[in-house]
Amino acid sequence: MDKALRPGRWLTYAILFGFALFTLLPLIVIVLNSFRTAVEIGRSSLIGWPAGLAWRNWSEAWGHFCIAQRCEGIRPYMENSFMMVVPATILSTALGAIAGYSISLWRFRGDTIVFAIVVMGVFLPEQMKLIPWALVLRELDLTNTIGALVLIHTVQGFSFTTLFCRNYYIGIPQDLMKAARVDGAGYFRTFWRIVLPLSPPILIVTVIWQFTGIWNEFLFGVTFTTGGQQPVTAALIAIATTPATDVVEYGIESAAVLLAAIPTLLVYFFGGRYFLRGLTAGAVK
Amino acid sequence: MRRRLADFLPLLVIWLPLLISVAHVVGFTAWTTWLSFTPSDLLPEYDWAGLRSYRAVLRTENTEIAYANLLVYGVGYVGLTMLIGFVLAVLIDQRIRAENLLRTIYLYPLAVSFVVTGTVWSWLFNPGQGIQKFVNGLGWTSFRFDWIIDRDFALYTIIIAAVWHGVGFAMALFLAGLRSIDPDLHKAAQIDGAGPFRFYLRIAAPGVAPIAISVLVILLQYAIKTFDLVRLDRRRAGHLDHPARAGGLRLHVPARPARARLGRRRSAAFVADRGAAALLPLHALAGPAGAHQWIRRCAPAAG
Question: How many angstroms separate the CA atoms of A221 and A156, rounded?
Fold first, then answer.
């Protein structure tokens, strides 16, 4: 209506879309660069329109580019990341769902305090746990394995997933639980028959959240794995910290960075709604 | 026998993961804390060394700078993120078109690793390749944007990248808060002749105050945890090898030396006891505050 004509309206849109452009800028730049050759970038700057489509960047980044003296591209590291993220996500989500159920619906003595301590884990900075993890991994003989990262992310993710699931399950009426008990259903039966069928919304949120978080994490990856065992985020750091003696292959690096970002970006664009729900879980009530 | 198992199994399933998690949270914190009072260096030693590590941290020339930088970074990052996030939320709340599109755009940085974020921003900030060169190329040859190699300004480039990353989160929470304000209040304000400015200042802002506290606490957590972005922004962007110049959270860098030896020799390195010493006071404050905040906000039935 007449609202559309007001100058304030224009200003609102100008600010909103201006900021959107700022937000998109790095993504646009890196997508464009992934199609430009090193020579082209060197002549102008990192901001520019590609003259042609240099698909070679992508194939080099995927299969041939040298990362810390290993010239196999980013592919083996992507595989490592998947090997790490899939089991860790499934395990932490499953355990979190069960723990959330125990705490919120089954209830036991001391559940509130145990929950409080577990949730503290969400806020414990990774750096505080680095040394104990190093010692534990050495004892378990897991140093420099993907299994080690799965273990770490499962234990660590458990705090998140328990928090998410418990906050969701707390909304399930206790009457349902009572009815189940009257019918003689035990701990597992109640979970399987009543709680689990109600769970898909929170499980989707949790899986998306865990997948993104574990994929993107790299402090543990860089600390506890080397060479061919590293997840892709750690490998990107290896690219980044390689001394730039020759021409920096910005085009190939852009493609590599994009390849590493694609899984989580896809998850975000297809599950954005759930992603947001995970974000606001608990913060807005 | 079967009956026993049926009683026993749920107890196991309930308690085993919880106990591991509790041991991980409490035990690891205590362990690191303990190590910070020992003379551990390359290998753990469990003799009492008192405050030696703490004194060593304080003696390091960079400690003061690091804490000062952390303060500037924390205030700048949290303040700007919350301010911009709130303004964007208010603007989006004006029944605009393309709301979903804008929200999707604002939030995508959260889905991307700091490794990616840091890499791209360090390119853009690099005066030899990024924004400066681009603008120079457009004809404005005297344009300078070389903060990242300027020891006094490098920290601000990190703040820009971090704000870019976090604004969507603050916006989303504020918007959810604004939407939960009773629409009748809005109408009442209009009837009373309160303009939009008055409405947002007097009614909406206090209304979202509890959410603002959540956002604040969570962002502070991020600020203290930030290590990733700093590492990334430092590299190759120029001559940022000197920690003081890199600004940032040198406190978190002990992770690096630990790694160099760890991976190769399988003997843990304990340079990080100093890191723990430096971090402890901060986390002693921030950790419980954060947990308390979450539990308070999201545990109405805790009692």
Answer: 14
- Rounded to whole angstroms, how far apart are CA atoms B201 and A107? 43
**A80 and A40 in a common domain:** no
**Measured distance CA(B70)–CA(B66) in Å, rounded:** 6
Regarding whether A248 and A107 lie in a shared domain, the answer is: yes
* pLDDT tens-digit series, residues B126-140: 777 788 878 888 888
Q: Which of B10, B22, B224 sits opposite A117 (nearest CB)?
A: B22
Question: What ipTM describes this predicted complex?
Answer: 0.82
Per-residue confidence band for A73, with pLDDT thresholds at 50, 70 and 90: confident
pLDDT digits over B238-250, tens only? 333 333 333 333 3
Is A79 inside a domain boundary? yes
Contact between B36 and A117 (Cβ < 8 Å): no
Residue of B36, B45, B108, B167 for testing the chain A interface, max A β-carbons within 10 Å:
B108
How many domains would you assign to chain A? Answer: 2
CA dist list (Å): A26 to A8, B27, B109? 29, 41, 10
Mark yes or no for CB contact B290/A123 under 8 Å: yes
**What's the confidence (pLDDT) of residue B289?**
46
B152–chain A nearest CA distance, Å: 23
CB contact under 8 A, B21 and A162: yes
Say yes or no: A58 and A89 in one domain.
Answer: no
Summarised one tens digit per residue, pLDDT across range A176-222 is 888 888 888 888 888 998 899 988 888 988 998 899 989 988 878 88
Mark whether A154 and A268 lie in a shared domain. yes
> Which residues, other chains included, contact B243 with Cβ-Cβ below 8 Å and sequence gap of 6+?
B62, B65, B66, B250, B253
A43 with A89, same domain?
A: no
CATH topology for B62-298? MetI-like fold (1.10.3720)
Res A251 pLDDT > 60: yes
Q: What is the pTM of this model?
A: 0.80
Task: Give the residue from chain B lying closest to A242, CA to CA.
Answer: B236
Q: Is B215 left (phi over 0), alpha (psi -120 to 50) or beta?
A: alpha
Q: Which two tokens stand for residue A106?
A: 């089954």
User: Closest partner residue to A46 among B29, B129, B259, by Cβ?
Assistant: B129
Q: Which amino acid is at B41?
A: D
Q: What is the pLDDT of residues B195-227, one digit of tens each?
A: 777 778 777 888 888 788 878 877 877 776 665
User: Which residues of chain B does A123 touch, with a Cβ-Cβ cutoff of 8 Å?
Assistant: 221, 286-287, 290-291
Q: B189 φ, ψ to 5°? A: -65, -40
Domain membership flag for residue A54 = yes
User: CATH code at A248?
Assistant: 1.10.3720.10
CA-to-CA distance for B67 and B60, rounded, in angstroms? 12
Task: Determine, yes or no, domain membership for A69.
Answer: no
CB contacts, 8 Å: A222 with chain B: 255, 259
Domain ranges, residue A274: 75-280
- For the stretch B35-60, pLDDT in tens is 777 776 666 777 787 777 777 766 66
Domain end point (choices A63, A94, A111): A63
